[in-house]
Amino acid sequence: MNCFDPNSTPEPGKPVLLVVAVALVDVDGRVLLAQRPEGKSLAGLWEFPGGKVHEGESPEYALVRELREELGIETAGSCLAPFTFASHSYESFHLLMPLYVCRVWEGTPRPLEGQKLAWARPNDMGQYPMPPADKPLVAMLRDLL
Ligand SMILES: Nc1nc2c([nH]c(=O)n2[C@@H]2O[C@H](COP(=O)(O)OP(=O)(O)OP(=O)(O)O)[C@@H](O)[C@H]2O)c(=O)[nH]1
Ligand SMILES: [Mg+2]
User: Fold this and answer.
1) What sequence ranges are listed for the domain Nudix hydrolase (predicted)?
2) CATH number for region 14-144
3) Where are the domains of the chain?
4) What is d(CA 6, CA 8) in angstroms, rounded to the nearest whole number?
């Protein structure tokens, strides 16, 4: 029962925001992290590439689009393996974020939106400050890679 925290009771009333994200894994088992640029919420924190699922999009469609927009790479829905998800309450919304793993894409990731990029070994990810929602995901990636 060591998960029991009476202060963690789920509360209704916040909008649920669906965001898709991906761990791009290279041949050395490193994962691509992107630093959120100035002016965005959570600026300066490192995150998995991705973004909001727009009206009418499937999660895979949205992720392929985000990877094209943010990094200039192409991948296919068939290269996106569902891995785990984050469910985390922020101040004004509740984040629901499926995390995919992708090892196959075309092109070299480039920072097209002014973000910094870093290839991080799962064991080194502790050195990259990440949003609170991402912490459990990092632990699961360590087990996978
Ligand atoms: N992409 C991404 N978003 C995350 C992660 N962790 C996390 O809490 N988020 C939150 O998910 C929300 C949406 O992400 P986003 O700002 O990248 O959305 P977006 O690419 O569509 O940007 P835009 O709305 O400026 O077009 C943000 O509130 C962000 O803080 C993560 O690892 N990756
Ligand atoms: Mg984004």
Assistant:
1) 15-143
2) 3.90.79.10
3) 14-144
4) 6
Beta strand pairing call for 94-102 and 16-24: parallel
Distance 52 CA to ligand 1 centre (A): 6
Residue among 47, 63, 67 to mutate when testing ligand 1 (max atoms within 8 A of CB): 47
Residue range 61-113, pLDDT digits in tens: 999 999 999 999 999 999 999 999 999 999 999 999 999 999 999 999 999 99
Distance CA 1, CA 129 (A): 29
Decide: 100 and 80 in contact? Cβ < 8 Å: yes
pTM of the entire predicted model: 0.93
- Where do we find the tokens 């898709």? 20
Termini Cα distance of the chain: 28
> Is 67 strand, coil or helix?
helix
CB atoms within 10 A of CB 86: 19
Three-class secondary structure of residue 95 per DSSP: strand
Cross-strand partners of 31: 25, 120
- Look up the ipTM and state it: 0.94
